[in-house]
């Protein structure tokens, strides 16, 4: 399947075959593939809670408008955007800095510049912080869905959930925001998929002000 075919055939699949698990090696592979997604300064402010246990998925379903796909999908992920992912001292930030030094793309002298640039760009207010974490995590989430598709696995992104309830139910630390949940699995062949949805065309998308 080439990329155009993959993009065109990916659908938000409503019905998953609950009896067809996703091999854990494929879950790992799709996460590793998605990790290649781009991010600001390569800061990768994303994490995942991966649920495969039925009870866990039912707990999540209760916080997600009782959407059945949350628990019928063999794998459902809580996608986390880390609002602290640009701050000095954050382990990933430190690692990125060290890796840049190792690769010769930064020098120790640039630590101060690197910190000031991150704070200036993202640390202005709640909006810039949330934009930082969610835009980068959005790229990761899309990469995850395409990675899944390339491995023959269907997906369904969801923001129909009570954010604060999910935070509490899964003991998620306050520095995270949950942009979406994603269900993964194989299509339930006893059901039919709705017709492909309308999309804005080139002329609708391109604007000038
Ligand atoms: C961020 C995001 C949140 C979504 N939330 C839900 C949801 O909670 N429930 C649902 O049934 N579909 C949800 N969808 C799926 C969209 O309705 C679907 O992607 C859109 O209608 C286009 O259909 P397609 O993906 O099959 O082409 C969501 C999609 C995205 C990207």
How many runs of DSSP E, i.e. beta strands? Answer: 4
The CATH architecture category equals 3-Layer(aba) Sandwich
Radius of gyration: 19 Å
CATH superfamily: NADH Oxidase
Number of domains: 1
Helix content: 40-55%
Average pLDDT confidence is 97
CATH top-level class? Alpha Beta
Total number of helical segments?
9
- The CATH topology turns out to be NADH Oxidase
Q: What order do the helices and strands follow? A: HHEHHEHHHEHEH
Assembly type of the chains comes to single chain
**Strand order in space, largest sheet:** 1-2-4-3
> N- to C-terminal separation?
38 Å
Sheet-strand content, in percent, reads 5-15%
List the ions, cofactors and other small molecules found in this model. flavin mononucleotide
Task: Provide an overview of this structure.
The chain is α+β, with helices and mostly antiparallel strands and 209 residues long. It has a single domain (3-86, 134-205), classed as NADH Oxidase (3-Layer(aba) Sandwich). The protein has 9 helices and 4 strands, in the order ααβααβαααβαβα. The protein has helices spanning 3-9, 24-34, 54-62, 69-72, 91-103, 111-122, 126-150, 163-169, 202-205; strands spanning 46-51, 75-82, 154-158, 176-185. It has a 4-stranded antiparallel beta sheet with strand order 1-2-4-3. Helix 2 crosses helix 7 (126-150). The N and C termini lie far apart (38 Å). The model has no long low-confidence stretch (mean pLDDT 97). The structure holds flavin mononucleotide. Flavin mononucleotide binds next to strand 3.
């Amino acid at each position: 399947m080439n990329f155009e075919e993959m993009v065109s055939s990916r659908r938000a699949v409503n019905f998953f075959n609950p009896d067809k698990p996703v091999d854990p090696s494929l879950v790992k592979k799709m996460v590793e593939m998605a990790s290649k997604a781009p991010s600001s300064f390569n800061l990768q402010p994303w994490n995942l809670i991966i649920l495969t246990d039925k009870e866990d998925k039912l707990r999540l379903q209760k916080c997600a408008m009782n959407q059945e796909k949350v628990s019928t999908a063999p794998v459902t992920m809580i996608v986390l955007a880390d609002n602290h992912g640009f701050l000095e001292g954050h382990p990933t930030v430190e690692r990125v800095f060290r890796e840049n030094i190792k690769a010769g793309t930064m020098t120790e002298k640039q630590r101060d510049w690197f910190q000031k640039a991150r704070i200036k760009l993202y640390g202005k207010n709640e909006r810039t912080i949330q934009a930082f974490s969610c835009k980068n995590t959005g790229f990761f989430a899309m990469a995850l869905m395409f990675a899944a598709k390339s491995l023959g696995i269907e997906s369904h992104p969801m923001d129909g959930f009570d954010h604060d309830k999910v935070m509490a139910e899964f003991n998620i630390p306050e520095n995270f925001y949950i942009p979406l949940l994603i269900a993964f699995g194989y299509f339930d062949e006893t059901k039919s998929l709705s017709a492909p949805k309308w999309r804005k065309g080139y002329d609708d998308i391109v604007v000038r002000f």
